[in-house]
Amino acid sequence: MAGRKTRSGGRTRAPWDEYFMKIAVQVATRSTCDRKNVGAVIVRDKTILSTGYNGSVRGMPHCDDVGHTMENGHCIATVHAEANAIIQAAKNGVAVDGADIYITASPCWQCFKLIANSGIKRIFYLEFYRDTHVIEVAGQAGIELRQVVLTS
After folding, report:
1. Which of 41, 79, 96, 137 is the most buried (most CB within 10 A)?
2. Rounded to an integer, what distance in angstroms lies between the CA atom of residue 144 and that of residue 141?
3. Taking the model in full, what pTM does it have?
4. How far apart are CA 58 and CA 48, in angstroms?
5. Antiparallel, parallel or unpaired: β 144-147 and 122-127
6. Stretch 64-89: mean pLDDT, rounded?
7. How far is CA 30 from CA 7, 34, 54, in A?
8. Do residues 112 and 135 lie in contact, with contact meaning Cβ atoms separated by under 8 Å?
9. pLDDT band at 9 (very low <50, low <70, confident <90, very high)
10. Do 50 and 70 form a contact (C-beta atoms < 8 A)?
11. Catalytically annotated residue among 82, 127, 136, 144
12. Cross-strand pairs, 48
């Protein structure tokens, strides 16, 4: 159990990256676009600042209820989890500069640009999703990109 801490009594504690990623997995259960359920958690100093999941524009019908608006193989009715987490932080006056983001799928190019310009410094993702351009540019932008593997 590399990375796990054992406390008296033999109970093990999840490492921080696993803890926050599991929360992102739970956030993804709120997704309203069944093509891909994605959750995001923005964290700084081991404190959750904001969460987001992919879903329709506020007040609009959900893809799960009315179907998808498809363009070039993507549902364009959906606001992505990363964007929603950044928007939620902004709406509540929470600065995300210097924070980390945990996402159940690696970000698309559009979301990567939002993440980079918001000042988030590290992206943790559960599964790789489509866009290799993000990997190429992350290092140039000074953003750490790391996959998290859940052990349980």
Report:
1. 41
2. 9
3. 0.90
4. 23
5. parallel
6. 89
7. 33, 10, 8
8. no
9. low
10. no
11. 82
12. 43
Q: Considering only CA atoms, which of 136, 86, 132, 139 is closest in space to residue 108? A: 132
DSSP 44-101: ETTEEEEEEE-EEPTTSPPHHHH---EETTEETTEEPHHHHHHHHHHHTT---TT-EE
82 is annotated as an active-site residue: yes
For residue 13, what are the β-bridge partners? 5
The tokens for 71 are 């363009």
C-beta of residue 148 within 8 angstroms of C-beta of residue 17? yes
DSSP 33: -
Neighbours of 142 (CB within 10 A): 8
Residue 1 has pLDDT above 70, yes or no: no
* Confidence check: pLDDT of 128 > 60: yes
Q: To 10 degrees, the CA torsion angle through 63, 113, 117, 135? A: 120
